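Ticket #4471: complex job returned nothing on first submit. Input attached below:
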Amino acid sequence: MLRIPCPWCGERDETEFRYRGDASQSRPAAEAGLAAFSAYVYERENPCGWHLEWWLHVGGCRKLLKVVRHTLSHEIHSVGGPEDPG
Amino acid sequence: MRGPGRIARGLLTDPDRPVAFRFDGRRMQGLEGDTLASALLANGKRLIARSFKYHRPRGIVTAGPEEPCALVDVIDAEGREPNRLATTLALHEGLVAESQNRWPSLRFDALALNDLIARFLPAGFYYKTFMAPGWAWERLYEPLIRRAAGLGRLEAIVGDHAAPAETVHDHTDVLVVGAGAAGLAAAHRLGASGLRVMLTDQDVVLGGGSLLDARWTAWRESLCAGLAGLATVRCLPRTTVLGAYGHGVFGALETLSPAEATRFGGLRERLRIIRARRVVFATGALERLIAFPGNDLPGVMLAGAALKYLRRYGVAVGRRPAFFLNTDEAYEAVFALTGAGIECAGVIDVRESSLAAERVRALGVEVQGGAVVEGAFGRDGVRTVRVVDVNGRRRRDLEADCLLMSGGYSPATALASQLGAQLTWREALAAFTPDLAATIGRVAGAARGVPGLAAAARDGESVACAIASELGRPASAAGPGADLPVDPDATPIAALWEVRGRGKAFVDLQNDVTAADVRLSFREGYEHVEHMKRFTTHGMATDQGRSGGLVGSAVLAQARGVLLSEVGQPRPRPFAQPVPFAALAGGEVREHYRPKRRLPLHDWHEAAGATFVAAGLWLRPLVYSRQQGWEAVLNEARAVRRSVGITDVSTLGKIDVQGPDAARFLDFIYANTFSTLAVGRARYGIMLREDGMLLDDGTTSRLAPEHFLVTTTTVNAAVVLEHMEFHLQAVCPRLDVLLSDVGDQWAQFAVAGPRSREVVAAVVAGVDLSNDAFPFMAASVATIAGVAGRVFRISFSGELAYELAVPAAHALKAWSAVLEAGKPLRIAPYGLEALNTLRIEKGHVTGAELNGNTSADDLGFQRMLKKHGDFIGRALSQRAGLTAPDRLQLVGVRPLERRHRLRNGLQLVAPRARTTSLGYVTSSTPSVELDGWVGLALAAGGRQRLGQRLIGTSPIHDEITELEIVSPHMLDPQNARVRA
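Support reply: We reran it on our side without changes. The output follows.
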């Protein structure tokens, strides 16, 4: 089980959070076209290694966190807000 | 002394407190503090079980949770529980245990025939032999094999009979797993430095290996006293760490002592979920068996087990033991039994000479160096042991009643491996040792190959100092209490895995896997140790191959002609030992399986005779009747259509949206427009997922220019809130908007029916409810029964209707006022089922149609998608595939024969192509306004089929109904009623 250090609440169990996917994806501009939105919704890298991801702290502050996690070791490198580069 | 095997006073047993028990119907006596295994051995009982596959006679092999053979059924008032380990089962007065896997009796087992034909039953035999004909596997072979093989039989002991368990969450700085010399020293040092420490051990007492050596008593007692004096240290004996889950999270199972179980009302087990900043694995080492012919005979045991039975319980496992050893450490059993006055038949040591051999020779024990045991013989137990020189010459037989073997020690690395520790082969120890990342913790003592108790204790202290300094605590000056005894010098191990000869040599006693099976696995191409494990089942089941796991790897390495270090061991996974489901479930059983959300008026609904239905976690009134059937439902619905009714819609999700950018944000979240909504008005909205599918629908009201109230469907309340929060923070972080979940703060009631205005007007003050002043889709703050609330003119039923919202605490006051005002009109509460009837007639959709696979176009909402401006799902909802004319589209269905009933899930087919589904019925109900049943359906190209006739079929109910496809708006398509 992951323990995620929420910058607002402190270190908490994974079960308090909702995983919201790949945070390296940003939503295309409104007129970017079907292909860009299709890539945004469906295309993912699935890396073995460091991964930037969204976690929403639904069982706590309800803030959206940007987490850098290693998909193999589950090590968490950093946790920040949506504005942080990650 | 209670039994012929009891020759001394044990550390754990109380000679003044006899305990009566039964095994296979025979009355026996043991002592308080015994395990079932020690009591059976004290009574001279050696044959305990029949083996898994060959039904060979088996006895007790170990003295702990690593036991492969001595599994029993325990029978009590609650039923029969199989596969309990005799070696850990605490003896108690009246215990009834039975042997397993034998018929008709342990001594005369009919299926022991399997052993005689064993050459025809190699590993993989079942898969290869019982292949054809195909039908026979399920009907014939498998039932027969299952009866013949296996361990205990499972009976239903769940439900009301399951022993209660609980789950506890723990937080600590350091978890120390194992309370032997290393663990005690580490915990003491960590605790003395002020850190919070949890010290667990699977044993009933702390001490591990130090319990077996009297020289260590003073040190152990001094440390235990020291630990008891440290407020930050918690000692948890009887607690097995089952798994390591990363990020410092561990699962542990604590078995309560009888006294504690009584204190906690019969609680048997406690599942602990432990969170620790660092871990110390002081898990010790496990003694290995040696594979030789007959190494499964009752009486063949691990040497360390014999030492434990003597020291802990005062029980000699035999009258004339022979030993088969390859380390000096294993000679402790020889010293102990000799010292207790037992005459040894001899010691066979594969090493030519050793320091330990010299020491026991001085006691008059015969040691044959440079020799191995080629076989153990006897019927139902050891009688003779055949010894041969390592060069294969000079055979002789020893008379012995037990053979105590030891093939060396494997560090217990399973937990460290679960955390990614790399294993390194250490030739000098003939064992793998783990390297754990320092950020996770340390491995200490015998668990990382440190030999000797004193060295282990020093190692425990040293890792504790390192961890304390990492966690910012300077090493304390507190000493370890009494002085450490000195470890004796020892001659190194000579690795020995297998002695080949005639007869079965087992590497896994629990699964009846022989060394020959491992070689067969290699020949069949299963060369990898993980493949060998699956092919042979070596290392599976309750003991997880603790005593023979590495032996199997060594046999495989020899067959492959490679080093053992290259073969390795199968990867261990949680759980480390079997866990009862009841312990995993803890208190989350029956009505506590999941939380319940009750409406503010739950008690009123209950008193009014409601039957409740689960909607998500909510309990909603289904119908105000305890009777089955449609009559009460239709009466409730009819009251709404003809006069007036009231229903509790408090379960709808309610999200308060405020801020200068609230309207812009809702325009982005919803597929239709909210920025154009006037203050004091409400609008029906649909929201899409980014992939273009419908997510949810509901009514949103504008209470002030920068203040909206969003309502969601009951089951999607949490999903929609998350959806909005995610997009506000991830996609629109510049918008100045605040979201608040106010679902629990407001109670909300729908008052519906042609006469609802009169009723609502009687309880609402401050709002002109005339049709002109407060038209359909109006919204306003209002005083309701003297309470500040809100009134909305919205309708799900298709009738003139109002929804009244008051703070939840005032729910009863407002609800009662409405009922009072409606009394002359015979107002009646209606439940979810009547609400469903009303909305189906009207063609309103709910979760059955908003099922995650439907697009806006499918449900007829295509015109709601705004033409200008971005919104979630806009781009992908334009995909041709989501608007294709042959997609499943929402329609109404009515049976041609009006009295025919409809069913949700009826498949729609064409009259001449009855095997091709054209869709299905999503919702159905008997109608109050229309003749017979009505339903909603998703039909392929449905909007083109209005007026067509299709067949509704339910093969599993053997039903066929002719249907007419109609508009989903079956009642009042002009919306005249809601605007009345």
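The longest strand of chain B covers residues 165-177. Closing as resolved unless it happens again.
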